[in-house]
TrEMBL record:
InterPro entries given in the database record: DjlA_N (IPR007791), TerB-like (IPR029024)
Domain Co-chaperone DjlA N-terminal positions: 28-143
Pfam families recorded: TerB (PF05099)
Organism: Agrobacterium bohemicum
UniProt name for this protein: Co-chaperone DjlA N-terminal domain-containing protein
Length: 163
């Protein structure tokens, strides 16, 4: 199983649109986690996909074709992953605590892109934040900030905190 996963990541650098990104590229790991959050509720809306595109563009300033390649590489890596550990391990190695907290904020931005928060999305972010070493307090603060950006009522948002 490990060889199959390793082979997959090695193949990301050969052919197709993902040839610009090495298997261990931090940007691929981040994009993969974003896709896993988007897919947690069973549907990936166009607005979520567009928000991810905007966030990746803001952070990495890529050409349109490279941005497409990054999104495809992230989608494929996320689809092939058996868990979040591989991505979070790479991210922890490359990002400091403040940057990891910011990443959790990015994940919440994607969740709220469609104006809704789902318990499965909550669960994925909780697991990812835990693996990234982001505190519960910081995770909740990032969620509240993302909710504020889309004017989600705190009352309805706090009801889901019990989940």
């Amino acid at each position: 199983m490990f060889e199959r996963i390793q082979s997959f990541f090695q193949n990301l650098t050969h052919g197709g649109s993902s040839e610009d990104f090495a298997p261990d590229d931090l940007r691929v790991a981040i994009a993969a986690l974003c896709f896993q959050v988007m897919e947690a509720d069973g549907t990936v809306s166009n607005v979520e996909r567009q928000r991810l595109r905007e966030l990746l563009q803001e952070h990495y300033d890529l050409s349109s074709s490279k941005l497409d390649a990054l999104m495809e590489a992230g989608r494929e890596a996320g689809r092939e992953a058996v868990d979040y550990y591989r991505f979070t391990t790479d991210i922890r190695r490359h990002l400091n605590e403040e940057q990891r907290v910011e990443l959790v904020g990015v994940l919440w931005d994607i969740v709220y892109a469609d104006g809704e928060r789902n318990e499965m999305e909550d669960h994925v972010i909780w697991r990812v934040a835990d693996l990234l070493g982001v505190s519960v307090r910081d995770r909740v603060l990032q969620r509240q900030q993302a909710a504020t950006h889309v004017n989600v009522s705190e009352e309805s948002d706090n009801r889901q905190d019990a989940v």
